[in-house]
Structure formats: C-alpha cells, structure tokens
Specification:
Layout (H helix, E strand, L loop, with lengths): L19 E6 H11 L14 E7 L2 E7 L3 E7 L10 E6 H11 L7 E9 L2 E8 L2 E6 L14 E9 H12 L13 E7 L2 E7 L3 E8 L7 E6 H7 L7 E8 L11 E7 L2 E6 L18 E6 H14 L6 E5 L3 E5 L14 E2 L1 E3 L10 E3 L1 H9 L5 E6 L6 E6 L10 E4 L2 E2 L8
Antiparallel strand pairs: 1-6, 2-3, 2-5, 3-4, 4-16, 6-7, 7-8, 9-14, 10-11, 10-13, 11-12, 12-25, 14-15, 15-16, 17-21, 17-23, 18-19, 18-22, 19-20, 22-26, 23-24, 24-25
Helix pairs in contact: 1-2, 5-6
C-alpha cells in the first residue's frame, strides 16, 4: 500500500512591518496632542488640516499640526521599546485623541503604540493599548500634509517664563474678543533696543507692559493673535521661553518680507503668522504724569467690585465714588438707590480739586474686576487728571515686590439719573 504525504501549507500571513511605530504612555500622548490641538480645529476649511503629522527622525518622535497660519510641533517622550525608524505618517487628529482617551480611560499611564502601515495600497493607522488594537484606513497620503515654510532668523532671545507669560497674560485681558475687528483681537509686540512692549485694547480699555531685555535686539513690531496666545500659553512649560523673530520671503503688501514669531519652551514650539494691519497708536493715551492719584487696598476693593458686579442692573456700569480720603464701588439700581449703603474704603490720595462727581461716575464692573485680578499687588493706584477722562490703574510696588511697568486704562461713563445718578 502506498501512502502519499502532502506538505503542509502555512495559510497564515505575516503582517507587513510598520512604516512608523511610536510607543508612549497614554498621559504623554494626550498631553502632547492637546498642545497641537491649539492649531487643529474641529471643522477645518481644508480636510487635510484635520490631520496631524507623526514623524520619527534621528531617534526623536514629534507630532506636528499646521493650519497655514500657526504651526505646533511637540516632542514625544517615547518609550525605548525598539529603535525608531526614520519615517512619517499622518493621522486624523480627532480620531487619534478619542481612541487613545477611550483605551486609556481606566489607567492613563498604560503604554500606547501608534503605528502606520500600508493595507492594499492605502494608509492604515493602528492604536494599540490595554490589549486592544484599533485600526483606521484612510485615503490621505503623507505628501498631502502641507509643508511648514522655512524662515530666516532675524534675532532670538530666551526670557524668563514667569516674566514674559505674566506680561502677556496681563495685557491679554484688554484685547477684543470681537472678530469683526481683527486688528483689535491682537496683542501688539514692539521691540526697541532693550525694551519689549506689549499693548492691547478693545476700544473701552487699554493695557500695556514693558519687559526689559538682557541685550538689545533687532527692532520689530508684531501683532500676536490674543486667542492663540491664551491657548498655547499653558503648553509652554519650561523655565525659559525662547522667542525667535523670523522673516519670510517678500510679501505682497510688505516688500522685503514679513515677520513671523516663534515661541518655544519645554517640549513645545509654536510658529505664528501675525495679523496684518496698522495697530492703533494707543501708547500716546497714557499720560506721563497725573494730577491726582488714589491708593487703596486691592483685596478690599476687589471684594467690593465683586458685590457691585453681581448686583448691578444688567448692561449698566457700577458707581464709583472717590473722596480725598476714601473710595467706594456700589451697584447701580433702577429703584431704591437713595437707601443704598456701601462701606467706605480708606484711601491715600494726592492732588487738589473736587473728588466727588455730583452727576455720578461709573465703571464697567467686569473690566474693573479683570484689571484688579491681573495683579497680585497689595495695593493699587488710580491715577487721573479729570474724573471724566480715562482712569489709569497700576499696581503699587510693595517692599519686596519687583518693579512693574503694567498700566491699565479704563474709560469711565456717566450714570443716568434714572439709575442712581444724583
């Protein structure tokens, strides 16, 4: 009897090697994706802008997002589970964040591997964590992701994060949130010699502060989108912030190039294109000196402004009353204002003339509250020449405080007699 034997055929197919593979903790992935999410919008005008670029180069792993105006590049602290191959891949930002968040919901520090390979000629991204592997096949090749333009560096310097970010945060509150006037949604940066000055206004209040630089740098003016700064500030986590002034090629409206600003700290770097236009010359609205000043405890005044803000009639100013020895901020009421009583806060004043305005003087309580919260000084100073002219608010330097150049200007308004004016 003849016995025929057939060779066994292995029907399993070895998966193709991943073109890109990065492993990091879920916490690290989500933190760095949050940083590039500053640039990535939920509904981009161009679909490819909804993707992020994952790149491995020379042993480093980075994530990049770009929307033709702002770019964000963050370095991932990846796990040494194997050598990183020099490669690139793109992945939908929202899908990547959602998938990692769901898979690491129980334990954020679990390792997450993001890999890219081709499946039947189409890119496939996989996220592997906690025993799961979640694939996504898409049709967008890496070549479609826009290239970030190269820039020539004009100058650069490293500044203390607390000083630079603090100045920008204090000025930011005065920037307009109304996109119908884009120029006012910006913070103006103006550098001259060893001084870097920040300015912002929404037409009803103005703020400015100057940071002194360790050396003279190239003069420049740049309009930084205030909303962009607020979004990226929390991701600049190092002790120093590197500020680089870059220049692009010739611009249609500005021959010789236009400035671009790069801010980097820790593992994150952002490059921003400024807003085009001529910023209002608000620096001239701050007087060199004032005829009258009033100093008051900031915490006491803050408490009083909080009460006034909550109780003032909607869309109405709160009433401020100044005398040569005190100041009060009271809510504005439609009825019963003659029975209203507010504690008087002791104040130190300078200057002569009439302090109390018989017609009633008001300030927007929201603006005043933000101005008071922008500083931690023990006392603040009101400076003005006339009661119906803009009032300048500055922190009073304490014994152990650093000198501050911060100034905040608020325009007062008259209170109608029907709302508590006399």
């Amino acid at each position: 009897m003849m016995i025929l034997t057939y060779p066994k055929t292995d029907t399993t197919t070895e998966p193709a090697l991943a073109d890109l593979e990065i492993t990091a903790s879920g916490t690290e992935w989500l933190r760095k994706l949050s940083a590039v999410g500053v640039v990535n919008t939920a509904r981009p005008a161009v679909p490819i802008l909804g993707f992020v670029l994952l790149e491995c180069s020379r042993g480093n792993a980075t994530v990049t997002s770009y929307d033709y105006v702002t770019s964000a590049v963050v370095k991932l602290k990846h796990e040494a589970v194997g050598p990183l191959r020099n490669s690139k891949a793109i992945a939908p930002f929202s899908w990547l964040v959602r998938t990692i968040r769901v898979l690491t919901n129980r334990k954020r520090d679990v390792l997450v591997t993001v890999a890219s390979r081709l499946l039947l000629g189409r890119p496939m991204i996989t996220v592997t964590a906690a025993g799961y592997t979640i694939p996504l096949v898409h049709a967008a090749p890496v070549s479609e992701f826009p290239s970030i333009p190269e820039h020539a560096e004009v100058d650069s310097l490293a500044l203390d994060r607390e000083e630079l970010a603090g100045a920008l945060d204090r000025v930011w509150i005065a920037a307009s949130k109304d996109d119908t006037l884009p120029i006012l949604t910006a913070i103006q940066l103006e550098c001259s010699g060893k001084a870097l000055t920040f300015r912002a206004t929404d037409r009803y209040r103005l703020a400015t502060e100057t940071v002194h630089l360790p050396r003279a740098v190239q003069e420049f003016t740049f309009l930084l989108r205030a909303a962009a700064w607020k979004s990226m500030a929390k991701h600049l986590t190092g002790d120093k912030i590197s500020l680089r002034v870059l220049v692009t090629a010739d611009h249609a409206r500005r021959p010789g190039g236009s400035y671009t600003l790069s801010l980097s700290s820790g593992d994150a770097a952002f490059t921003l294109t400024g807003i085009e236009g001529d910023y209002p010359k608000i620096g001239t609205l701050f007087a060199d000196s004032y005829e009258r000043t009033l100093e008051v405890n900031r915490r006491d005044l803050l408490d009083q402004v909080l009460v006034a803000k909550e109780l003032t009639e909607p869309r109405q100013p709160s009433r401020i009353t100044m005398t040569s020895e005190s100041v009060t901020v009271a809510p504005t009421l439609h009825e019963g204002s003659e029975a209203l009583a507010t504690p008087q806060l002791a104040a130190v004043t300078t200057g002569d003339g009439h302090w109390q305005d018989p017609a009633g003087l008001g300030l927007n309580p929201h603006y005043l509250l933000e101005a008071l919260r922008s500083t931690t000084a023990e006392a603040i100073k009101f400076s003005f020449n006339e009661l119906h002219k803009p009032i300048c608010i500055t922190p009073v330097q304490g014994k152990d405080d650093k000198p501050s150049s911060y100034r905040h200007l608020i325009m007062p308004v008259r209170i109608p007699s029907t709302l508590g004016g006399e």
